[in-house]
Amino acid sequence: MSVLKYSLLRLGAFFIVFAACLMLDLGRYTVIFALIVGLIVSWALGYLFFNRLRLEAGQELARRFGGDRKLGSSELDDNQAEDALAEDFHLTQEKLRAQQRSAEEQGPQTESPR
Prior knowledge:
The chain is mainly α.
């Protein structure tokens, strides 16, 4: 419902400013000028004065199109494979760090004189 409210407020603001600019009658460029000014003013009004409604509308759209979707079996398999690869990589990195620490703790190897 927030998306509808926010959209109607923005459209209303656009059409009011658009109609006011059309009344200026700037000749050949009146419609283009009215369109540009209407878009800029409606964006600014929406951003400055309808911020709470804008954020609610964004969250509503995010919930609707992003967060609640079901994953398919191939996507689940891909996610599991990626998780396994990432875990193997991190285990390998931990082993390498442990080897480096043990080598540093032993200190430099001195060669015997000949």
